[in-house]
């Protein structure tokens, strides 16, 4: 085995394998950094190129790319408050506030250091613990995955910020969104409102991008500010090394988080969906001083970033050794293995062990290489935090909407992205935490599937008494108690934790959303009443408590608004102040720009519509000259045409202009 | 009389001359310098993807003009999501976008709402048949004692059968065959993909699952059979027009067909409505579980080119993935002249067989435990 271990290392450093690895790392850095892309898309793009390669070269390219997307996704999470990929959602909670404080360098330094550590730790510890893995995987069937999903949901307590009630309402909203589309047990649609798009459910990526990216971009656009709210000279002493030192200081947290990531990654069906949240919650709950979480605590960056790199190695080994992929990315790698003529299974640990170890070493080398490269570039990247926001907004809007478009290649993706942008903005201004909605949306699907299979396979609910289920549920109970204690302690403390992103919310702006949610949950119950009994059970279990909780929140909002009005010159004055503070008028114009971009796409096509948006935004909103506006727009157009059109070969929305071109071309032929 | 301004007339004349000079381009030249998109209804690395990806570079060599062919994965709903997109308005129906995909024939017959297009509006370029199989867990007898197909008759306790959907044709074959030999089972559906189904058996969450020959050779054999976790119980044979099994078909060595195991134990062939449904479902698997489709509106001359070039490609052994080539397993590709007959299998379901399948599914649903 040691022989194979060393041979694997030698194979990675052979030419041209190391060249492919380097190329994969560069591509992975790019794919991770752009919101809405990520490792899965990279695997799909690269897979055809690996046909003619040797197995070690193919995996150097694929794993070099795949392993590092969760290192570079930190860039968007920290700089823009947008999860670069699904794996870096928890990083935004403290990473973005750090950038707003002008400490993006520090966040990068810490994140890249622990990402490399997590990736290396995950790969090596798994290689060492191969004999333990099959028993571990065998003991995690659907009942255990269901219990783990419940454990994931218990993180909502940690992510709810000031109001646990609001956090729960938002989480229930996420679960209810997960109910849209065909039910798990029968092909009966739920909440589809007669539209084809909703029959397949609401896709995650447009929701995440809308909910997080659009409100943050609006902040930059409306307030005409840079990402950093403090000037550069005020944070001159903060460097990449500060972050790297932070990582070393919190090495034990990084190790524990990598451990969580590695072993959660092994479990099929859960993969990396919740691992960053679990690690983040662990960081909060294990901290003595929780007061800075959500405001830019470096530990809130270290924990998820260490875990989300470890998870990829965790998913790889069972894929190779047992043919059991722990995640979608691992399933694609399994395909690559078969294309290479290799068969996952015992042979990969015996006759082909050198290839297995070359994969492990590819992950190790890629993680270290990416961290070094990003450390070198991080200083330049961090400077973006001080650039005027108007120059950042159009490019990021382009990436956000194209990221959303990839989900289903339907105009519904853009509408969902925009609708959740409006919701995200309303939540931000009303002091509602946004992370629980995403956690619940991800887990809703996993939980429904695991519950459905568990009940069918075990003939009822006897599986609740399985030992591993009991242990995980007991852990959940401990997490809830700890979260409850933390909230009570925080309420009595002057330095209360404001985990989440609800710190600057206004009571009166929360009120309209409370009313809308009460109506929405009431409507959901009314509609569910029309479903067959088996189908309505789960939506009812979600919507009824959601209605009761949202009525409670509404009552509390009314009480708080009355108090504000009593101390602030009446409701009218409080409302006017809140509207002026939130710049609602200009926010409306910002949304009108986006609505116009979507509408114009039907006429002139998406590439032209996005270019037009970029040019008009820079010229009218940003106040830039026509040369810069048009140049920027043209560069965007070339990128859209080249990367999304030619490299990714996506299908664009058919437009009237296409029909016109088609008519002209048919005349010519 | 209408008088044209020089500025209007000149471009019109130039345009007309250009149109006249260019003439009609021949269909043979159509694909030269163009990109043909092959859309696949599964994830990259999924079952059908693994067959399609090695296939398309070889296909490109046989299409006049040797177009660049790209593979595009649109997973979801067992191919339905992709076919809904391909047959819709979003994709141009110009001969440059086609599907290589499973297509859920039973969902169409049973009127599933997830099917939002009429497959018969398009053009079938090629049809691939497959060898359906059943896997069974060795743990059903003490000391992992289920070692050979005839041991199934010693199993007296109810078992759990895993699958993806209620109406999945391969899974129906597996379940009907188990019912025909009197095995009591509970059907658990909802698993997403062959990997998850296989994992459920490894975890002993289920004790039987259906598979297809390529997936068996690529994945299941090394992780289930070779590890002693389970065995291939039987393969499901094709039947001729008189309902007799075609035993000459090249099946997987060492794995006996269902009817042979049945006949050995009971001394006669199976019979009754379940058997009739079984035969129809099995023939459907051999005829058309995977299709290559061009959407409605694709020019007929391009459909012809694609059909002919596809037929040449299947003669070229390079189109088979290495693992399957080594194992001697391939899809049973149609010849162009066989296409109408193969497609006819889909609509040849008799009212009796349809009623049996519907009753079978609804009886299973009634036996399923309720969520309280």
Strand content of chain B: 15-25%
Structural class of chain A: mainly alpha
Q: Regarding CATH, which class of the largest domain in chain B?
A: Alpha Beta
Which structural class is indicated by helix and strand composition of chain B?
alpha/beta
Total strand segments of chain B: 11
Q: Oligomeric form of this entry? A: heterodimer
Share of helix among residues of chain A? over 70%
> What is the CATH topology of the largest domain in chain B?
D-Maltodextrin-Binding Protein, domain 2
Total separate domains of chain A? 3
Q: Proportion of β residues of chain A?
A: under 5%
Summarize model confidence as the mean pLDDT of chain A: 87
Give the helix proportion of chain B (percent range): 40-55%
Count of DSSP-assigned helices of chain B:
13
Using the alpha-carbon principal axes, give the shape of chain B. globular
Rg calc of chain B: 24 Å
Write the layout of secondary structure elements.
The complex is a heterodimer of chains A (669) and B (372).
Chain A: H1 2-12, H2 17-33, H3 39-46, H4 55-72, H5 74-80, H6 91-100, H7 104-128, H8 130-138, H9 142-153, H10 156-159, H11 164-178, E1 181-182, E2 189-190, H12 196-199, H13 204-223, H14 240-249, H15 251-266, H16 275-286, H17 299-322, H18 328-339, H19 353-383, H20 389-408, H21 411-430, H22 435-458, H23 467-491, H24 507-528, H25 533-567, H26 571-582, H27 584-604, H28 606-621, H29 626-647, H30 656-668
Antiparallel strand pairs in A: 1-2
Chain B: H1 6-22, E1 35-40, H2 47-62, E2 68-73, H3 80-87, E3 97-102, H4 105-109, E4 123-129, E5 132-137, E6 159-163, H5 169-180, E7 185-189, H6 194-202, E8 208-212, H7 213-225, E9 230-235, H8 258-266, H9 273-287, E10 290-294, H10 300-314, H11 322-327, E11 332-333, H12 339-347, H13 351-367
Parallel strand pairs in B: 1-2, 1-3, 6-7
Antiparallel strand pairs in B: 3-10, 4-10, 4-11, 5-8, 5-9
